[in-house]
């Protein structure tokens, strides 16, 4: 059974694919500014984003974690060269400050306890946490424009948190120190440092 993450990356809609490519370009450009020594992606799903990062940062140790065993199995089939392992964002099975850059891309909007997840991401990050979430209300308006999730006013049924760019930056700043706030329509991208690294 295809997950919503896999459906997003495999949808053949040309506009959606252009938006994803543009997002990945912005994401990689921001990541290049910090020259990561190692990358941990928490909530990696099947590994589509991690696969792109491995192609770009060929000499960087990278690992993906996810709680969905089915997604991990599919990821290992699609990308057998990736290091994909089970892992819960609320209890990341990694030691303190063990990864240079820790990524959670399109994860926090799904969580009932996003603040707890942020603390865990900051715990295992040595230098940076890189986060992305849908930028509301633009994400929902985009869905409405495509005729998606009409009964929910464009909100994806798995999204329990809705943030604008500014409200997400404010949310992150309670746990981490945002150093770069940018975006790629219709997503917000935030690069942050753990507060105890100051």
Question: How would you portray this structure in words?
Answer:
The chain is of the alpha/beta class and 198 residues long. The chain has one domain (4-197): 3-Layer(aba) Sandwich (Rossmann fold). The protein is built from seven helices and seven strands. The chain has helices spanning 4-10, 14-32, 48-56, 69-78, 114-124, 138-145, 165-173, and strands at residues 38-42, 61-66, 84-86, 99-105, 125-134, 176-184, 187-194. It has a seven-stranded mixed beta sheet, sandwiched between helices. Strand 2 (61-66), helix 4 (69-78) and strand 3 form a beta-alpha-beta unit.
What is the helix content?
25-40%
Strand order of the largest sheet: 3-2-1-4-5-7-6
pLDDT averaged residue by residue: 89
Q: Could you say how many structural domains there are in total? A: 1
Strand content: 15-25%
**Low-pLDDT stretches:** none
What is the H/E order?
HHEHEHEEHEHHEE
Major sheet size, sense and barrel closure: 7 strands, mixed
Radius of gyration: 16 Å
- What structural class results from the helix and strand content? alpha/beta
Shape, per Cα inertia axes: globular
Q: State the total count of DSSP E strands.
A: 7
Oligomer: single chain
CATH topology: Rossmann fold
- Terminal residue distance: 44 Å
Query: What is the CATH homologous superfamily assignment?
Result: Vaccinia Virus protein VP39
What is the CATH C-level name? Answer: Alpha Beta
- CATH architecture annotation name: 3-Layer(aba) Sandwich
């Amino acid at each position: 059974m295809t997950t919503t993450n896999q459906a997003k990356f495999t949808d053949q809609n040309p506009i959606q694919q252009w938006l994803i490519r543009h997002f990945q370009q912005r994401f990689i450009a921001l990541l290049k500014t910090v020259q990561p020594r190692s990358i941990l992606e928490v909530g990696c799903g099947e590994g589509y984003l991690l696969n792109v990062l491995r192609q770009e940062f060929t000499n960087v140790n990278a690992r993906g974690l996810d709680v969905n065993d089915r997604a991990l199995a599919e990821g290992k089939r699609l990308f057998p060269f990736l290091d994909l392992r089970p892992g819960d964002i609320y209890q990341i099975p990694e030691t303190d400050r063990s990864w240079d850059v820790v990524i959670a891309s399109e994860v926090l909007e799904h969580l009932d306890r996003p603040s707890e997840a942020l603390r865990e991401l900051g715990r295992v990050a040595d230098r940076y946490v890189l986060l992305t979430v849908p930028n509301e209300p633009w994400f929902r308006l985009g869905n409405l424009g495509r005729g998606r999730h009409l009964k929910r006013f464009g909100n994806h049924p798995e999204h329990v948190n809705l943030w604008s760019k500014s409200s997400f930056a404010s949310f992150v700043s309670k746990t981490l120190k945002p150093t770069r706030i940018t975006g790629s329509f219709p997503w917000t991208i935030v690069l942050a440092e753990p507060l105890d690294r100051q």
